[in-house]
Design a protein that fits this description.
- This protein has one domain (3-309): Rossmann fold (3-Layer(aba) Sandwich).
- It is 34% helix and 14% strand.
- It has helices at residues 21-29, 44-49, 69-85, 112-116, 119-128, 178-183, 198-209, 224-227, 234-243, 269-273, 288-309, and strands spanning 36-40, 61-63, 104-110, 133-138, 164-165, 168-169, 189-194, 215-220, 250-253, 256-259.
- β7, α7 and β8 (215-220) form a beta-alpha-beta unit.
């Protein structure tokens, strides 16, 4: 493995085979040469990289509870400001020690710790204007604890707490529009990315880390374990999510929308759904109407995004 990629997160963690979380973390942390301090909400990333007494982290790292990772980084940012004011910290320390100069501050949280449990502390930190990057790796459920539904779980998915069966087609509501929730705080830069498009993710991470004030990245992370697809196909699933417009790639910079990937002939959303065991029940005759509802929602969201971006 390229040593540059492992300077901040080492190999030897215990993420599942076919998990894209390490790619997300290394791509984002590799987008800056500045020292970095990470705050991490409870979740898949935390439990697989900090198996006591070992750690895969080679940079200052704080495990916060599910609900307060953004509050934790707010305190770190306030401490940095105080140290700078007292001239006990340099304004820049590129390539140097995290303790020799001002560090970039990054939070990682899953969709459970971001859409739901940690939303209040994220909202507070954004509203106060703390300078940090929040990264939500979105695998569409509480995957660390067995696959319960979250606010990021798509309509129709079979989950442990909203299972498909005789009287249910699975998740009964659409996922939250987290990008619009975050945008409403008036931050300068936020973007939606996908682990299957690492160059696009790296570009967005660089922009986010250079933004003054808070920034936000929402990154799709297909979960081989609970989406139920072969471990070798997470890139294929990620690409299908974008090729069907289920997961568009776009940025919102100073309120302006920019679409980063336009497929003039998008695939039908069922191409994405049929590859996953969590949606297999939707292809039964009684549930096919749900696929039509999902396609209608995808089409409507894409049309709205195109209008907001001014694209044709």
């Amino acid at each position: 493995m390229n040593q540059e990629l492992t300077k901040k997160l080492a190999p030897g963690h215990t993420t599942c085979a076919g998990c894209g979380i390490p790619v997300i973390v290394r791509t984002i942390l590799g987008a800056t040469k500045d020292p970095v301090i990470v705050s991490n909400a409870t979740g898949c990333l935390e439990v697989t990289t900090t198996i006591y007494p070992y750690t895969a982290w080679k940079i200052p790292y704080i495990h916060s509870a599910f609900e307060n990772a953004a509050a934790t980084i707010s305190g770190v940012e306030a401490a940095q400001k105080a140290l700078l004011k007292k001239a006990k910290l340099k304004k820049s320390a590129k390539g140097g020690s995290a303790f020799g100069g001002k560090a970039k501050l990054v939070v990682f949280g899953g969709d459970g710790g971001t859409y739901d449990i940690g939303l209040q502390s994220l909202s507070g930190a954004l509203e106060r204007g703390h300078e940090f990057l929040y990264v939500c790796y979105d695998n569409g459920g509480y995957m660390n604890t067995g696959g319960q539904r979250s606010g990021g779980t798509p309509l129709g998915a079979n989950t442990e707490t909203e299972p498909a069966g005789l009287d249910s087609f699975g998740k009964s509501r659409n996922r939250k529009d987290l990008m619009e929730i975050v945008k409403s705080h008036g931050i300068k830069y936020l973007a939606q990315a996908n682990v299957a498009y690492p160059n696009d993710l790296a570009m967005k991470a660089k922009k986010a880390l250079e933004t003054k004030g808070p920034s936000f990245l929402l990154v799709l992370q297909p979960c081989t374990n609970l989406w139920k697809f072969p471990t070798s196909r997470y890139v294929r699933l990620g690409r299908l999510a974008t090729e069907t417009n289920f997961w568009p790639l776009y940025e919102i910079e100073k309120g302006n929308y920019v679409i980063n990937y336009v497929n003039k002939n998008p695939k039908k959303v069922e191409e994405f759904l049929k590859e996953q065991g969590r949606f297999k029940h939707l292809f039964e005759e009684k549930n096919k109407k749900v696929i039509k509802e999902i396609q209608k929602s995808v089409n409507g969201n894409w049309k709205k995004l195109v209008e907001m971006s001014g694209s044709k």
